[in-house]
Amino acid sequence: MFGPIKIAPSLLSADFLNLERDVAVIGIAGPDYLHLDVMDGHFVPNLTIGPMFVKALKRRFDIPLDVHLMIENTSEQLDWYIDAGADLITVHVESGAAKQACKPGSSRCVQDAQDPEALLEQLRSIRAAGRMAGLSLNPGTPACAITPFLTELDLVLVMSVHPGFGGQSFIDDSLQKLDQIVVDARALGVDPIIEIDGGINEQTAAKVAAHGADMLVAGNAIFGARDPNQALHDIRAAAKATQP
Ligand code: DX5
Ligand code: ZN
C-alpha cells in the first residue's frame, strides 16, 4: 500500500522449454519476486505447475518466490508449497466452499458463503511457517469479501483479469477496488502490500500505482517484450512516477 514499488514477472508468459534461460535473463533487471501461477484445471480452466517445479526454482535461483495458488483444494495442498520453499503464498478467497457464491460479475458479498475458519487456518499456517500470507480476489468478487481477513495478511492480490491465462486486457474497475481496499485497510490500521495481477504494462502500471498497488505482476509485457529487462525497468519507472 504505497510502499516501495515491487515488480514480479509472471513465468506463465516465459518460454516453458527455456525457463532457466528466461529466469536468468530477467534476473539481470533485478525482479523483486518471481510470480508463479499454480493452476489445477478446476478452480481455473488451465493447468500449470506444481510444487516440484517451485522447489526446483528455489534451488536454482536466489529470487524470492511469489506463489499464486489458483486451486480448489487449498487446505489439502498448501503444505506442498510451504515445503517447496515458497516465500510468499497467496490463496483465493473464492476457492473451496466460497466459489459457488462468487460467480463472475456478481456484486454480492461472499462473506456469508465462505468458510472463514478454513481460510483463517490457511493464512495462519503460512505465517506460522515463516512465509508471507496473501489473499486474492477475482474481478467479480467485491472488496468486502476480504475485509474480515485484512488483519491476518501480509498482502492482498487484486486480480485485474479473470484468472487462468496471460495476455488479457486490464479490467478498469480494478482501480475502484484498489481504492476500496486502501480505505478498508486504513480503517483497520493495517498496511498490507497490495499486489495487482493481469494486464499490467507501462500504461496500466502508472494507473494502478496511483491507486495504491505497490507490487505489480507482469507476464506478457515482460516476457513478450523484445527486451524483457528494459520492459521491467519501464514498468517500474512508470509506477514510481505516479505513486503519491
Ligand atoms: C493469470 C495469472 C497472471 C498472468 C498475468 O491468471 O494470475 O499472473 O500471468 O499475465 P499478464 O501480465 O500477461 O496479464
Ligand atoms: Zn498470477
Summarize the structure.
The chain has about 240 residues and is α/β, with parallel strands linked by helices. The protein is built from 8 helices and 8 strands. The model is unreliable at about 100-105 (pLDDT under 50).
| N-C termini distance | 11 Å
Q: Which stretches are low in confidence, meaning pLDDT under 50 for 5 or more residues running?
A: 98-105
- What is the overall shape? globular
Beta-strand segment tally: 8
Total domain units: 1
CATH class: Alpha Beta
Strand/helix succession:
EHEHEHEHEEHEHEHH
**Helical percentage:** 25-40%
**Rg, please?**
16 Å
Arithmetic mean of pLDDT: 93
Strand order of the largest sheet: 1-8-7-6-5-4-3-2
Q: From the coordinates shown, what is the CATH architecture?
A: Alpha-Beta Barrel
Under CATH, the topology is which?
A: TIM Barrel
